[in-house]
Amino acid sequence: MSAAARELGEGRERLLEVRGLTIGWGSKVLQTDLTFSVDRGEVFAILGRSGAGKSTLLRFLVGLEEPTAGHVEIAGHGPVDLTAGLPPFGVMFQAGALFGSMTVGENVGLALDEWTDLPPVATAAIARTKLALVGLEGAFDKLPSELSGGMIKRAAIARALALDPELVFLDEPSAGLDPITAREIDGLIRALNEGLGLTCVVVTHELESVFAVADRCIVLGDHGGGIVAEGDPRELRESTDPRVREFFNRRPRS
């Protein structure tokens, strides 16, 4: 567990509250009655097999979709309304989602252009600072097509940090990367958490990353099974629930 998370102890403050959330579209329901919370200073992982609705859940958490039922509260405010003003969080979307026609610096500065009245010189300075924070000092004038997969992930994280949020959502940050680069991204997430006190919600199915960075996690069940486990992922490996034990130990059911 991170130092920030340990310091909270029994008096920890909840930064994200999810209560009775049902997600899906129309008659198609992916998950029902999802209830969990994330404490300030934690790295919290959302896990589950492919098709369980992990990335879809993230879209509902950040206000891109409206739930059928339930409530999401972030930093004491909810439900999330992206039209109401500056959001209290940043998002790194799966595969980075950088705009190919814009430079990396312009991608990182986009949120500043949208949500602040800062002059271009200030926006550029902040973008350079965020890129340096994720180890991309020399990438400001490059196009996304000139970056490697790991660099794209780093640039997307820099963009998520542009407005100095206290909470970031990271969708599959290490997916599709070679083992060394994936470990570097894991290290970056932990460094941001411990160095800045940043609260992170990570959607992933990469177990090595989960064990490397997550303080706590939830596991989504298949076929709308809801949350089948919650806790420290290192402890859940020994769960008495066969669904959970098989997931964490990579053992398919016979």
Could you give the topology of this structure?
Blueprint: H1 3-8, E1 14-25, E2 28-39, E3 43-48, H2 54-61, E4 69-74, E5 90-92, H3 104-115, H4 120-133, H5 149-160, E6 167-171, H6 179-196, E7 199-203, H7 207-213, E8 216-220, E9 227-231, H8 233-236, H9 242-248
Parallel strand pairs: 3-7, 3-8, 5-6, 6-7
Antiparallel strand pairs: 1-2, 1-4, 8-9
Helix pairs in contact: 3-4, 3-5, 4-5, 6-7
Q: Could you explain the architecture of this structure?
A:
By secondary structure, the chain is α/β, with parallel strands linked by helices. The chain has two domains: 1-80 and 165-254, P-loop containing nucleotide triphosphate hydrolases (Rossmann fold, 3-Layer(aba) Sandwich); 100-164, no CATH class. The protein has helices spanning 3-8, 54-61, 104-115, 120-133, 149-160, 179-196, 207-213, 233-236, 242-248; strands at 14-25, 28-39, 43-48, 69-74, 90-92, 167-171, 199-203, 216-220, 227-231. Strands 5-6-7-3-8-9 form a six-stranded mixed β-sheet, sandwiched between helices. Strands 2-1-4 form a three-stranded antiparallel β-sheet, with helices on one face. Strand 8 (216-220) and strand 9 (227-231) form a beta hairpin. The two termini are 34 Å apart. The model has no long low-confidence stretch (mean pLDDT 89).
